[in-house]
Amino acid sequence: MNNNFVKKLRIDWENINSDSYLHDIKSIRTNEGIDFNKKITFFVGENGSGKSTLLEAIAVNYGFNPEGGSINYNFETENTHSILSDNMILEKGYRAEDGFFLRAESFYNLASYVDSVSLDLSEYGDKSLHKQSHGESFLSLICNRFRGNGLYILDEPEAALSPQRQLTLISKIKELAREGSQFIIVTHSPIILGIDESEIYSFDNDEISKIDYEDTEAYKITKLFLHDRDRMIKYL
Ligand SMILES: Nc1ncnc2c1ncn2[C@@H]1O[C@H](COP(=O)(O)OP(=O)(O)O)[C@@H](O)[C@H]1O
Ligand SMILES: [Mg+2]
User: Which of 63, 106, 119, 209 measures 20 to 30 Å from 140, CA to CA?
Assistant: First the structure.
C-alpha cells in the first residue's frame, strides 16, 4: 500500500506562459506525471536536465521555503519560485509531521539562518553549523534534526560527504524510511543511488523515465572507470 506523503505529481501547462523557460526543459515538459511508489525516490540525469527545477517545485508546492529549510505550511512563496509549483498538482497522503528541503547551493544560507535565530544547537550537534565542516554539519543536521515521519527533499546531498559518510547517510535514510519517512533525492552519487528499495527516475533523453540502478550513468561510468581507469583516461 502506498502511504506516502506525496503519491503523484502532474503539471497543468495551460497557465504557464508559453515564453517561460519551463517549456524548454524537455524532460519536464513532455512528462505526463510521476508516481511515488516507494519511500525513497531518486532523480538522476545530466546537468541541466531539470532535476532541481522539478524538485524545488515539489518542495514549494508542499509548503517548504524555496530557499530550503524546515516545513512551514504558511509560507508565502515569491513569484519567481512559484510558477511551476503553482501549476503542479500533487496527490498527497497524510500530512508529514516533519520535513526538510535541502537545496544544493543554499547550505551556507541555511547555516546562517540557524545561527541567526539561535535555534537549539543541540539539534545540530551542539556547535554552530559554520564552525563545523560542510560534511560534519550536514550529517549532524540529518542525524539530529530529521525527527522521522517526515518528507525530506534533498538536492545532491553527496556534495559535502566523504564516501564513508555517504554510507552513514544511507543507513540514516534507510532507518527513517523504514519508520515511515519519505525521501525525494537528486543525486549523482553511485553510492547513495545504491540504496535498495528505491525508485529511480532518469531525466535524460528529454523524458522522465524509470530506470534500474545498473542503467544509471552514475553506476555505468563509475564502473567503467574503476574497471579500466588507464584506458578511459587515455580515451578522454
Ligand atoms: N530561473 C531560470 N531562468 C531560466 N532558465 C533556468 C532557470 N532556472 C533553471 N533554468 C534552466 O533550466 C534547465 C534545468 O535546470 P536545473 O533544473 O537546475 O537542472 P539540473 O538540476 O538537472 O542540473 C537548465 O537549462 C537551466 O539553465
Ligand atoms: Mg541541480
Answer: 63
